[in-house]
Design a protein that fits this description.
3 helices; globular; alpha+beta; six-stranded antiparallel sheet; 6 strands; about 20% helix; single chain
Length: about 140
């Protein structure tokens, strides 16, 4: 799986969906827009339903629940992680990243454009709150 870089400051959910579906950011953004999902809507990173809806539209199946993060070893082979989780004015916000285990290697695909490397293995610095398992 390849990382997709978000083209908007708040486009992490769209970029993660694009990576999972094998799409470009532009194609995922077009699909999202057709579903009424826009990166400028803060609900994209404070409510899971928007990403779930986009993933369904792209043919990606996900678990119906969020699972609290316990350890990197206990994660499924593919998962959407909520990192940088925080409360602002009583509303939760987070940054979406992907955890992938393939070929015996574990990595986090982080779409943030300002990172030196978007493929991360600095697990001690990444603090997931919970995850959504990717089931296909």
């Amino acid at each position: 799986m390849e990382v997709v870089i978000q083209e908007e400051a708040t486009g992490c959910g769209i970029a993660a969906s694009a990576a999972l579906a094998g799409l470009s950011y532009a194609e995922a953004k077009r699909r999202a827009s057709a579903l009424g999902i826009h990166a400028s809507d803060t609900s994209l990173w404070s409510d899971t339903e928007y990403v779930r809806k986009l993933l369904r539209d792209c043919g990606v199946s996900v678990s119906p629940k969020e699972t609290p993060f316990e350890s990197w070893e206990s994660l499924p082979d593919k998962a959407l992680l909520a990192i940088k989780w925080r409360m602002e004015r009583g509303k939760p916000f987070w940054h979406w990243v992907l955890f992938v285990r393939e070929g015996g290697q574990e990595k986090v695909l982080d779409s943030k454009s300002s990172l030196r490397s978007n493929v991360r293995q600095d697990f001690g610095r990444i603090k997931p709150k919970w995850y959504i398992e990717i089931t296909n």
